[in-house]
Amino acid sequence: MHEHFLASEYPPCPPARAGFHIIPVPLERSVSYGGGAAQGPAALLAASQQLEAWESGLAPGETGFYTAPPVDCTGPVAEVLDRITAAVDTALDCGAVPVLLGGEHTVTLGALRALATRAKQRGEPLGVVQFDAHADLRQSYEGDPYSHACVMYRAAADLGLPLVQFAVRDFCREEAATRERLGVTHYDARFLARVGLPEKPFPEGFPHNIYITFDLDGLDSSLMPATGTPSPGGLNWREAQFILERCVAGRRVAGLDVVELAPIPGLHHADFTAAKLTHLLMGLAQAANDQQPAEARS
């Protein structure tokens, strides 16, 4: 029996009535430094039992939380991605916001495939908002096009999704060139620290519907050491919250994920931070989506 998100405060909701489908995806296949991402979803769910029912005055659990069984991550990565897409499709069929818990960052691609297909069918473009220490824009890494280092290239180049990046501070010359070629908007950690966040961070014409992917190494390593590649110079909690609030303002959040938690035994503050961030993201998504016209919420 798997653990349910914040079941200490909200009894698990039937999937057809839940506002959020939490989907654990313990994939760990291409990590290139520290390991442990496969244990991330379970650690986050366990830590969520210590959360309060409210987060920053928001209570997304009042719309209902359904925590799906963990996605089977055995077999070829292509098959795992298909299973993720199917789980996200189920959430969308129920009218819920899918919330993926990784696992390595590759899991995001499975969610984006489902959402991009729906967006195309409805004629409503989808944009991706990425928080990360890394650009993840390599075409292939260590011979693997499905590496966690390639997930945003797959999203932007293969799926054609507009992308905005926040807090990146570790990337290569190839990725810088890819940014220019694909027109990726970016507010790197150094820019945010020295200049700050613009009032309107999205470029003109960026889609109204967004998917938020939050790699936990986007946070500063002093706050989030429990990840495969902890990096100094990242966001603190209040900075992350402020940027997220500005990103969701006036938009509809179609889905989100929190990825790359690699728990460190005995260091429970990192697991709790990951759970608290997930709860905050759901609260901000619910508040933003509630402001949309009824037809946009369907």
From TrEMBL:
Cofactor binding note from Swiss-Prot or TrEMBL = Binds 2 manganese ions per subunit.
Q: Which cofactor does it need?
A: Mn(2+)
Q: Which InterPro entries match?
A: Ureohydrolase, Ureohydrolase_dom_sf
GO function term, MF aspect, one = agmatinase activity
Keywords (alphabetical) are: Hydrolase, Manganese, Metal-binding
CDD domains referenced in this protein's UniProt entry, alphabetically = Agmatinase-like_2
For the biological process aspect of GO, one term held by this record is: putrescine biosynthetic process from arginine, via agmatine
Residues noted as binding Mn(2+) in the record, renumbered to the chain: H105, D132, H134, D136, D215, D217
Q: Which family does it belong to?
A: Belongs to the arginase family.
UniProt protein name: Agmatinase family protein
Q: What organism is this sequence from?
A: Desulfovibrio legallii
